[in-house]
């Protein structure tokens, strides 16, 4: 019998002073058996940093034709495609062909090695932005994970306050 996903519910209050955007979101996230709570919370953070009416989670880690998080407008056009981790070139180029903008939110200890090996082709893609979550910030977010969460997320001058965690994501390649 296949292992089933674990359902997490989040009440997320977003106050993004940088965009400016304010909203309350009732979210359901499925934690795939092969996924860590850190990745789950990075998905939640990616949502918070781009929160809006048309933003939604993809079907999950095993859905190859979908983003982890994406913004699809009412006409079906993909405005934003968000990849997590350290995707390969083919996946990022495919996302660029389908979406107006592409974000890669990289996390984990291997991000510097991945960036060093891939930055030359990533820097050539105008649609792509790359955001790094440090291992310390990833661990702080994972510690916040609960099956039922109520979290406030405040973004101001690039700093992110998610629950009790103060996060400092780093743009390896800023959005154009």
TrEMBL record:
SMART domains: YaeQ
Name of a matching Pfam family: YaeQ
Taxonomy, superkingdom: Bacteria
InterPro entries on file: Restrct_endonuc-II-like (IPR011335), YaeQ (IPR009822), YaeQ_sf (IPR038590)
Protein name according to UniProt: YaeQ family protein
Organism of provenance: Limnobacter humi
